[in-house]
Write a structure and sequence with these properties.
Two copies of one chain form a homodimer. Chain A has ten helices and no strands. The first copy, chain A, is mainly α and about 220 residues long. Chain A folds into two domains: about 45 residues, Arc Repressor Mutant, subunit A (Orthogonal Bundle); about 150 residues, Tetracycline Repressor, domain 2 (Orthogonal Bundle). In chain A, helix 4 packs parallel to helix 7, helix 7 crosses helix 8 and helix 8 runs antiparallel to helix 9. The longest helix of chain A has 26 residues. Chain B binds a DNA duplex (30 and 30 nucleotides) through helix 2 and helix 3. Chains A, B: It comes from Tamilnaduibacter salinus.
DNA sequence: TCTCTGTGTGTACATTCGTTCACAGAATGT
DNA sequence: ACATTCTGTGAACGAATGTACACACAGAGA
């Protein structure tokens, strides 16, 4: 009651609203079922304030997709720094970084998993676009590291796409378990690692295998 | 206004309600955002009727999961009939059947894709359980056909799990395109086929590859 | 210093929601 | 034939929702 009604910083309420939406999603609510009043309530702000910052919930969702893009880029950067040499630990280290980021940005990845089959087409496309970008960057990195050099560009891109999808699907596993159920998280980590190993082994033998299938 | 208020058949309204929920989902709405009144309105029934048949929307969702199970089993049966010999067309034929069923039961698969990251934990687990069952059956079939006979049970199950996940992720691709955009559907079909080929090639070389990774 | 613009507040209203209740007509078992 | 049970109806409620409007106050530019 002392400092209410003050304007702290430009964009402060805006961030608070986005954060509140994410928090609700993190608590198990689905983004599509969130209402304007609900979000403003969680943010400790009057409903009208919402319209000062967003036109509707879809608008807010698109902003969240942008921020999600930043999170993904941070994750990619860390992976690039820590995983430089292409040895047999490449996959495991990358999965570790992935799991760590999911735990640190739990709500964002909740939102991402929901958005893939969400209500707003725009959000859906946005997330899909982020995944494409991620796959492309992954392909570039692998090229740079000299991994899978026998694959053509299209085939490498195909492989990376499958990798990203597989990892993305692991969200839905990860999100189902409590954040401190280490045993179960370890199990998901192992399983994801094996999935990726399976894919990479397939990619290693891809050309020949593909020719064999197509030749007949 | 002639025959209103008649009770047609037991469970008729019940089916109409489930069908209406699916229809709304098929129109792009997210299941989590559907309300009781909305569903009953779509079904051409008074809101109160809902409670005669379901306790709440989660309850209806669980029934839908059960029906989804039937759809999946039908799909599996057709695949078993039409894909008997394990030749190089196995994957393509299976993907064909899969695509055909998704198109024929569009709304169900919408619901499934949404439910994986949905609001109701019970529905989430139900869908997850259906996927596990599907993967197990797939593993049995492959065993019976003598495919991947060099893999241990655990590794075969791992492979099938990845296959099911990959196919499930293709839903979200398929659902984004118009049902009669044949060119795009064909593209998704091809891409999915290649994903599976990649996985199976990986599985073929799995033991050796795994040992090589683990041995060092 | 003064004005203007941006941002948050409070009030308000029509609409929609979930849920309850008493009632009516068809089906079912005896 | 009759009582019971099952299923759908209509009206009604209190609560929550989206959105509009007028107002208040802080900071930026003159």
């Amino acid at each position: 009651m002392t400092d209410r009604k003050k304007r702290r910083k430009p964009g402060e309420t805006r961030e608070k609203l986005m954060e509140s939406a994410l928090t609700l999603v993190g608590k198990g609510r689905h983004y599509a079922s969130l209402g304007i009043r609900e979000v403003t309530r969680q943010a400790g702000v009057v409903p009208t304030s919402f319209y000062r910052n967003f036109r509707n919930m879809d608008d807010l969702g698109l902003e969240l997709v942008d921020q999600l893009g930043l999170v993904l880029r941070r994750m990619m950067r860390e992976a690039r720094i820590n995983v430089v040499q292409a040895d047999e630990r490449l996959i495991e280290e990358s999965v570790d970084i992935f799991i760590r980021h999911v735990e640190a940005n739990r709500d964002f990845f909740f939102f991402m998993a929901q958005g893939l089959a969400g209500e707003s087409r725009a959000v859906q496309d946005g997330i899909r676009s982020e995944m494409r970008y991620f796959a492309t960057e992954l392909a570039n990195d692998l090229r740079r590291m000299g991994v899978m050099s026998h694959l053509g560009d299209a085939d490498l891109e195909l492989t990376c796409d499958l990798v990203v999808r597989t990892v993305a699907f692991s969200f839905t596993d990860l999100l189902g378990v409590s954040p401190d159920d280490d045993a179960q998280i370890q199990q998901i980590r192992d399983r994801t690692t094996r999935f990726l190993q399976l894919i990479f082994i397939g990619a290693e033998h891809w050309e020949s295998g593909r020719k064999a299938k197509e030749g007949v």
